[in-house]
């Protein structure tokens, strides 16, 4: 009996996704061996990220440029296989010019370490590069203006896994209106061979401490998928 027919629907979906990714990976290895993979040839993500960062430093693509202190581009290892994506910079991130340096960032660092993930395993950025005043929700026109920057970062980094932090980043990346509690912990295909694993935003876990375990569980899943 084929293995798929003995699985529950969600297991079946996971199995099909795994098989699909294995095929894409094998095909990519085949192209690499023959020097036909254009993406591998172009790889110098560090330089490309730096150049891209410089090119948008003075961006005035939406009204948030008026109130920002710094444009918060991203941080981490440009060769990382895991990319974490949050919503937008907060007050401390805006002041420092680096994402996830405030209380939510500290909680995230703690849970990443508990899940066995190291700083060099990740790159982290937000959907919006400038802070919405008072940490209000991003507006549709701000997302429309800024999302191409995140997509470009993803294109340069080409991570194996994107872990979207919270409802906002998850809905934007998956183009869905579904809530984060039903999406979290369920891997989905983002494009070609990149999977998204949605999880809770660490800031939400500060206000709901019982959610901390769910965040940890999802990060452990990310770690397993990376090794799998
Ligand atoms: S939020 Fe994005 S689009 Fe708006 S000014 Fe900042 S970098 Fe430009």
Description:
There is one protein chain. By secondary structure, this protein is an alpha/beta fold. 49% of the residues lie in helices and 10% in strands. It is built from ten helices and six strands, in the order αααββααβαβααββαα. The protein has helices at 9-33, 38-41, 45-56, 91-96, 103-114, 140-157, 166-174, 180-183, 202-207, 212-227; strands at residues 75-76, 82-86, 122-126, 161-164, 188-191, 194-196. It has a six-stranded mixed β-sheet, with helices on both faces. Strand 5 and strand 6 (194-196) form a beta hairpin. It is globular, with a radius of gyration of 18 Å. The two termini are 25 Å apart. Iron/sulfur cluster is lined by residues 56, 59-62, 64-65, 71, 128-130, 142, 145-146. The site of iron/sulfur cluster has 14 residues, from helix 6.
The best one-word shape is: globular
Under the CATH scheme, which architecture of the largest domain would be assigned? 3-Layer(aba) Sandwich
Number of helices: 10
Ligand catalogue: iron/sulfur cluster
The total beta strand count reads: 6
Classified in CATH, the superfamily of the largest domain is: Uracil-DNA glycosylase-like domain
| Overall pLDDT confidence | 90
SSE map:
Layout: H1 9-33, H2 38-41, H3 45-56, E1 75-76, E2 82-86, H4 91-96, H5 103-114, E3 122-126, H6 140-157, E4 161-164, H7 166-174, H8 180-183, E5 188-191, E6 194-196, H9 202-207, H10 212-227
The structure holds iron/sulfur cluster.
The site of iron/sulfur cluster has 14 residues, from helix 6.
């Amino acid at each position: 009996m084929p293995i798929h027919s003995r699985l529950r629907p969600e297991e079946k979906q996971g199995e099909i996704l795994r098989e699909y990714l294995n095929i894409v990976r094998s095909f990519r290895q085949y192209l690499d061996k023959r020097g036909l993979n254009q993406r591998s040839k172009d790889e110098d993500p560090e330089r490309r990220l730096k150049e891209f960062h410089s090119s948008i430093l003075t961006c005035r693509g939406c009204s948030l440029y008026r109130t920002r202190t710094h444009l918060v581009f991203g941080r981490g290892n440009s060769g990382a296989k895991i990319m974490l994506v949050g919503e937008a910079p907060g007050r401390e991130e805006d002041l420092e010019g680096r994402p996830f340096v405030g209380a939510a960032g500290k909680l995230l660092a703690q849970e990443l370490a508990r899940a066995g993930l190291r700083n060099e395993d990740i790159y982290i950025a937000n959907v919006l590069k400038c802070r919405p005043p008072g940490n209000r929700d991003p507006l549709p026109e701000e997302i429309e203006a800024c999302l191409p920057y995140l997509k470009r970062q993803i294109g340069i980094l080409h991570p194996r896994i994107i872990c979207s932090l919270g409802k906002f980043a998850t809905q934007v990346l998956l183009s869905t209106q579904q809530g984060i509690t039903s999406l979290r912990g369920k891997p989905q295909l983002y494009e070609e061979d990149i999977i998204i694993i949605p999880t809770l935003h660490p800031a939400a876990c500060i206000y709901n401490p019982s959610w901390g375990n769910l965040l940890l569980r999802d990060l452990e899943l990310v770690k397993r998928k990376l090794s799998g």
